[in-house]
Amino acid sequence: SCFDKKSATVSASVRWSSVSAIDMDINSNLFPRSSSDREKGIMPTFNAWRELGWYQDLTIGEAIAHAASARPDDALVFASSDGGVVRVPLGELHARALGTAGALQARGFTADAHVIVQAPVDARSTELLIALWTIGAVVVPLTATAGADEVAHALRETGATRAVVVPEWRG
């Protein structure tokens, strides 16, 4: 299960890469190794990735802050409720997330707190996630279809002490 205590603990300590998981597929040719190394099954190390600039020791919050600083006008695109799209500049989204992070901290959300988030994929929820990652919280995502049993399981297994659920999903 993705909600077991070990996974939740690992999630709290993961340092995220600037390379997406798709780019790091072990069957791809993106690894810094020779064909003879591939034949021997030798895998590259994070040190090799660091040297190539593919990996940085940043938390998700730090990586987003860095990206927002370097490319504030780059826009993230979200589906809107009317069927269109909403474009939000990364710098603006990060600034709003910092405000949300302050509000969450004022309400007692802390670094390393396990927080259940049950929300749609949209600009507001992304702002919330960035805010939680900025303060160092561990996000425990749940889908809209998660019922009482799944929520109870997530609470038990992750030790979540807080939850954020959008009003239209409360049941």
Structural description of this entry:
By secondary structure, the protein is an alpha/beta fold. 43% of the residues lie in helices and 14% in strands. The strands form two sheets. It has a three-stranded parallel sheet, sandwiched between helices. A two-stranded antiparallel sheet has the order 1-2. Helix 6 (123-135) links the parallel strand 3 and strand 4. Helix 4 (60-70) crosses helix 6. The two termini are 24 Å apart. Mean pLDDT is 76; it is low at 1-33.
Protein topology:
Layout: H1 5-13, H2 35-40, H3 46-51, H4 60-70, E1 75-79, E2 85-89, H5 90-106, E3 114-118, H6 123-135, E4 138-142, H7 148-158, E5 162-165
Helix pairs in contact: 4-5, 4-6, 5-6
The proportion of strand residues reads: 5-15%
Spatial shape: globular
Sheet with the most strands: spatial strand order? 4-3-5
Tell me how many strands there are: 5
What is the CA-based Rg, rounded? 18 Å
Order of helices and strands: HHHHEEHEHEHE
Helix content: 40-55%
> What's the N-to-C terminus distance?
24 Å
In DSSP terms, counting alpha (H) and pi (I) runs of 4 or more, how many helices? 7
Overall mean pLDDT stands at 76
Low-pLDDT windows of residues: 1-33
Q: Which structural class matches the secondary elements? A: alpha/beta
Main β-sheet description: 3 strands, parallel
